[in-house]
Amino acid sequence: MNANAALSHHVLTQIADAVIFSDCEGKIQIWNPAAETLFGFSSDAALGQSLDLIIPERLRAAHWVGFHRALASGQTRLAGKAVITRACTAAGATIYVEMSFALVRDAHGEVLGSVAIARDATERRARERALQQRMSALEAPPDPGAPHKP
């Protein structure tokens, strides 16, 4: 393994965020240890599998439309943006993940596939929802039938 390959290996295995690379067919080719931790699938279980492994069934159609559109156009509308979405775990749970995406190209500019960087956003999403609910309750007009408190 040359120095650059060794460095790339160390970065992928030691980074705290999940790194998932899929080829142009949507088959997982890179699945780092943080992806194992986040989603619960070992590398052996994930490598070579469809991205459907972690995409909730009701989101799959939209995902694949966007995936194929990005490959065909050579660009993704989500480039440079992190989005919060849902994902499936090996235990069957649905979690919120913050993901950023990019197309990966070879030296000639040909698209090789897509990379996603992900982190768990489940607690963050719960805090945001609770805050939204509190704000809605504070902004709601007073109930005219409620007893007045001095």
Helix content: 25-40%
| Number of spatially distinct domains | 1
CATH architecture: 2-Layer Sandwich
CATH topological fold name: Beta-Lactamase
> Helices and strands: which structural class?
alpha+beta
Mean model confidence by pLDDT: 89
Adjacency order of strands in the biggest sheet: 2-1-5-4-3
Low-confidence stretches are none
Distance between the termini: 75 Å
Biased composition (Pro residues): 141-150
Domain PAS: 4-74
InterPro entries: PAC (IPR001610), PAS (IPR000014), PAS-assoc_C (IPR000700), PAS-like_dom_sf (IPR035965), PAS_fold (IPR013767)
Region (Disordered): 126-150
Q: Any descriptors?
A:
150 residues; Beta-Lactamase; 5-stranded antiparallel β-sheet; 5 strands; PAS domain S-box protein; PAS-assoc_C
Question: What's the quick description here?
Answer:
The protein has 150 residues and is an alpha+beta fold. The chain has helices spanning 3-14, 33-39, 43-46, 57-73, 122-139, and strands at residues 18-23, 28-31, 82-88, 94-105, 111-120. The chain contains five helices and five strands.
